[in-house]
Amino acid sequence: MPASFLDRESTIAPSGYNRFLVPPAALAVHLSIGQAYAFSTFNLPLTKLIGLSHSAPADWKLTEVGWTFSIAIAFLGLSAAVFGHWVDKVGPRKSMLTSALCFGGGFIVSAFGIRFHQLWLLYLGYGVLGGCGLGIGYISPVSTLIKWFPDRPGMATGMAIMGFGGGALIAAPLSLLLMEHFKTATSNGVLETFVTMGVIYFMFMLIGVYSVRVPVADWKPAGWVEPVEPRSLVTKANVADAVAWRTPQFWLLWGVLCMNVSAGIGVLGQASPMIQEIFSGRVTPAAAAGFVGLLSLFNMGGRFIWASISDYIGRRNTYIVFFALGILLYSAVPTLGHLGSIAMFVAAFAVILSMYGGGFATIPAYLRDVFGTMNVGAIHGRLLTAWSVAGVLGPVLVNYIRQYQIDSGVPKAQAYSVTMYIMCSLLLIGLICNLAMHAVDEKYHYRPKSPGPKSSASSRSAS
Amino acid sequence: MKARLIVLWLAVGVPLLWGVMKTLENALKLFR
């Protein structure tokens, strides 16, 4: 039976194919699903669907609307874990199309929820369906890029995952523009914006579906020779996804990602009130929004820069820098606040957020080093459950400890000091996990069922 | 192949650049 357009076989690149055509395909998907980080732009308008200029009693509450993003992130982790193996099996084109259908469709289902004022439809659409689009889309180009760039896996995955950070930079002003455009006397424009964004993102993701290609088996860049003696953690063997999660290395990396993300995500969510409260009277809400934007820029840039650096200094060393420098900067924040230095405060958080993004972008190459390329997409998917946990842990720690401090009579400007020290302890746990990393025991290495030379395991890498 | 490379990079690069510029515009308010 001939292969269909969506099958992996149809995406195998012809000889002489320029591998730099693949990152834009990955970016088309990641720039779209990165919209999730800007969902908060809809929070207030969604609480004024009936009252328009104010929240009417029948309108949704902010706490109710806030659950939409949490559900989406939870389903991101779950779907990446559940569908990771399927994504590896069917290839990037089919999985990218599935992601586009889920993500774009999620907006449309949510639009029905807005039209008929049914909150469960908003949860089902953006939260469940859109969340599945996020998870499948996030992992779908990763293993393909790793196979195209065996010489620079960090840079390649960093480029794609940078798109996820950059998606929010596009979506935030785009959402505001569209809501303003569609606003009428009887509508605040959210419904029309959801429909438009669903269509735009679906179409944009089709660029990735159409242009993505996988390399032939055992493809290597011209002139590149695989290092004879790779770094201590880098393996030439492969570990199957069903086996990987039973290794201590998987859980150590899970801890590394969870701690790095927890420390960053809590601050990112509270960045605006935090800078206004620490520098009370000196930072306006508009300037605080600028601070959040600046952090998003560093979050995005850090993804590409740190992941690229990891190709030279190694993944473990990169995470040592993240954790050690992170501890240093977090512990300096209370002092910087006390000194009243806004510039130093902003600079410290800019570096912290660059390492938060860098942590996301470097992990796929770390997994490839430790578990090989065979099932790296599926293993990455399972590891993303750490993100779901961190998405709850980080904000809860920051918010509750701040509130506890304020309730105990601590001035608002100093309410974040304890939080910063707790972030340091999270990073210390991450550092210990990272330092405990060692090569996977040979008993976990993949061996084909039919007897053959051990090296044949790695020959599946680009299949 | 070269034209396709340019078109694809422009397709993803232009929206990203627009988003970065809009963000920078807002970020400048912090230092005004």
Molecular structure report:
The complex is a heterodimer of chains A (463) and B (32). Chain A is an all-alpha fold. Chain A has helices spanning 22-33, 43-46, 62-90, 92-115, 119-139, 142-148, 153-182, 190-211, 241-244, 248-278, 285-313, 315-339, 342-371, 376-383, 385-407, 417-435. Chain A has 16 helices and no strands. In chain A, helix 7 (153-182) crosses helix 13 (342-371) and helix 13 packs across helix 14 (376-383). The radius of gyration of chain A is 22 Å and the shape is globular. The two termini of chain A are 19 Å apart. The model of chain A is unreliable at 452-463 (pLDDT under 50). Chain B is mostly helical and 32 residues long. Chains A and B meet through helix 1, helix 7 and helix 11 of A and helix 1 of B.
Explain briefly what this protein structure is.
The complex is a heterodimer of chains A (463) and B (32). Chain A is mostly helical and 463 residues long. In chain A, 69% of the residues lie in helices and 0% in strands.
Rg over alpha carbons of chain B: 14 Å
Low-confidence stretches of chain A: 452-463
Q: What is the average per-residue confidence, as pLDDT of chain B, rounded to a whole number? A: 89
How many extended strands of chain A? Answer: 0
Encode the helix/strand succession of chain B as letters: H
What sort of overall outline of chain B do the alpha carbons produce when their principal axes are compared?
rod-shaped
Largest interface: A-B, 34 and 21 residues
What's the mean pLDDT score of chain A? 89
β-strand amount of chain B: under 5%
Q: What is the share of helical residues of chain A?
A: 55-70%
Question: Count of helices of chain B?
Answer: 1
Q: What characterizes the major β-sheet of chain A? A: none
Number of helices of chain A: 16
Number of strands of chain B: 0
Tell me the major beta sheet of chain B: none
Structural class of chain B: mainly alpha
The share of residues in extended strands of chain A comes to under 5%
| SS class of chain A | mainly alpha
- Secondary-structure element order of chain A, as H and E? HHHHHHHHHHHHHHHH
**Oligomer type:** heterodimer
